[in-house]
Structure prediction request, 610 residues.
Amino acid sequence: MSVQIDQDHTEYQEVHPLKAVAGGKRPDPPSAMASTMAFAHRALLRIKHVPEQMFDVTVFPIIFLLMFTYLFGGAIAGSTGEYLQFLLPGILVMTVSQITMYTGIDLNNDIRKGIFDRFRTLPIWLPSALIGALLVDVIRYSLASAIMIGLGLILGFRPEGGALGVVGAVLVILLFSFSFSWIWTAAGIIMRSEKSLMMVSFLVVFPLTFVSNVFVDPSTLPSWLQGFVNINPISILATAVRGLMHGNGTWEQVGWVVVVSAIFVVIFAPLTMYLYRRKE
Amino acid sequence: METRKWEQANGLAVEATGLVKVYGKERAVDGVDLVIPRGTVYGFLGPNGAGKTTTIRMLSTLIQPDDGSASIFGHDLKTESAAIKSRISLTGQYASIDEDLTGIENLVLISRLMGYTTKEAKQRASELLLAFGLEQAAKRQVKKYSGGMRRRIDIAASIVVTPDLLFLDEPTTGLDPRSRNQVWEIVRALVGTGTTVLLTTQNLEEADQLADRIAVINHGKIIAEGTSSELKASVGTGTLTVQLLEATDQSKAASIIEQKLGAAVHVSTDGVTLSAQAKDSSIVAEALGELGKEKIGISDFALGRPSLDEVFLTLTGQSASDQPTEEEHS
Prediction:
């Protein structure tokens, strides 16, 4: 350590604090939009400095898609090509829903590292701290979606809904993911450690994504399970996304996703903010 | 009378009555009263787990007191937290900075969150980096900074807009002397422009150097309060420390020192280091002379200022370092 300090001339550069304290005139507090943009910018800078965090939206989706297509394709649908038509919309929903939980992990880290305290003592509209981060997450989800759809097209996925249907499907996924993320922000504040947060997140996300209509047609399931699968938000989303991609979607299907998303936001956004303000 | 007039003209930065914070069965803060005039430096002195950080977190609106009340510049802590937030700033014990971002990115972020436009924010960030001797490290990630640099960037982030009241939680713990002096210089500059500073420390010298008034806190209670000289008067002007050559001389030496100085002798665990408070230096010379007459060999002796440990010995009858180190609540 001492060796490093001897060589490091920046360590003890002279300080002239008086020059700084004079300049700090107080401007009007930022608008909600301005502070949200500042937080979004922070999230982008974090991607620049910690690019590893993009693994979850780039490498994971590729592995998932290849794995499930070739593992189950033959067994479930007779051929991988045919299964892909059914699977891709579902696996896209599953993958993006699963990566939403990293939102909570980032917030949990902020809390443990102390920067959370600074944000909370600033004269800002507090939800902007989370909304800014979630907006950048939406960009991450878009990237994951683009990668999966691109790879799917190479593997033989042919959406009958055309480009418009695919874009619509992605927008529905983004709306859902943004809303679903508020569960993880609430959990990220409650949980003491990253480990316990991961465990809880997996406990929620795995049953939700697997016990759905993502992999199989629910009519093959026992009736008690069908009941759960049909009201599972992931199934509701997968149904709408499939419909849009294959050109046979209905407004009703999309409407249900909007309703489910609204429910998530109405419950978990205020809960998150309550916890955020009260965190000790 | 003089102080009262001054206080009325300037108002109080902090006024707290009976602040209490309970975690489970532990009363982390147990009835703290505070009066801090504007424009002064107030030192909070105490060991780990004494309740310093918890008190600061309550006063800076981060956590709510379980009992008691406080006002910051006349704004009620419970009902006017927004007004308080626009007057205060907090530098926590652990860097409240995004370590993955560079120094300048952090300061631009905080400046924008304070309400500066992006252009103004960049200008303010460069100004601060220059003033705090960090311009060469501006484009380096904060996680690559040394301890002293981290502290400075953290304080810089706290004064992007010069606060009326700055909370500094153990600003120099773990810093080397040169970095510590830099932090002191910054605190003095801030106070010079009218900022009130509430700082916590485990180090009496720091409180002595910076603080106008000091509160000694232990087990969530303020056990002494006053100016630095008042506090020191209460624990004696200094401490004589004698290191014996032979541990076998311990009891004999202890009784001589106790008799001459008229104060209780503290024997360290090594068995050869004795210390006692001394009221003036002439009796110290006498005590040392007496030890020489009795042919008690001394390897070293020193007359030092009272340390936090001695303040604690006197005020609580127990050593500060003997305190159980409780986990700070976050």
Q: What stands out?
A: Chain A has one domain: 52-278. Confidence is low (pLDDT under 50) at residues 1-7 of chain A. The radius of gyration of chain A is 22 Å.
